[in-house]
Design brief:
Order of helices and strands: HHHHHHEHEHEE
Radius of gyration: 29 Å
Number of strands: 4
Strand content: 5-15%
CATH architecture of the largest domain: 2-Layer Sandwich
Shape: elongated
Amino acid sequence: MAEDDENNHLSEEDIALWEYVTQDDKKLPGKKIIEPTAEQEENPAQKITPAQITTQKENTELFHNPKAENSESEKKYKYLELNDASEVDGRTTEKLRRGRIAIEASLDLHGLKQDEAFESIEKFILRSYQANKRCLLLITGKGAAPASGILRENTPNWLNTPRIRPKILIYCSAQPQHGGSGAFYIYLRKNRQSFIKP
């Protein structure tokens, strides 16, 4: 019997949660109502209110919210300047700058307006990352036409937007055979969560 009594003992949290869940329920005749213990009556400050339970639940959901965690992880990335090789080893950087890493995908922005260009870049980077592609070629134009100059000028800012920046390790101007100053090599991080075979 002692063991049954011990198992039937409810903690303060259990009682508070039960009262909160059953506050609108009709009590059946002949059923025993759980009353607070003497210790709980003497120490009302230790009781956990339904509001506290709700707050705890919200905090727990926020803590385990993948979107919230992703948002926090994106904040740690600094603004990535052109040719910034701080996140890549020297050998990979040199090969990229010389155009000696195989280009796995390319995007040409000629003829696009600014909003169209940004949308295309975002889709291009995210899809390439999901497919576990590493070396990309982005063609903006050299700036002879006003639109090309604006696209090239804005590209660094676009590459540093919250959804794109975490995917990029380094970007630099391309070699002449790939567009020269009117194009960029972009080297992406390895997508360790990808299940797509290259």
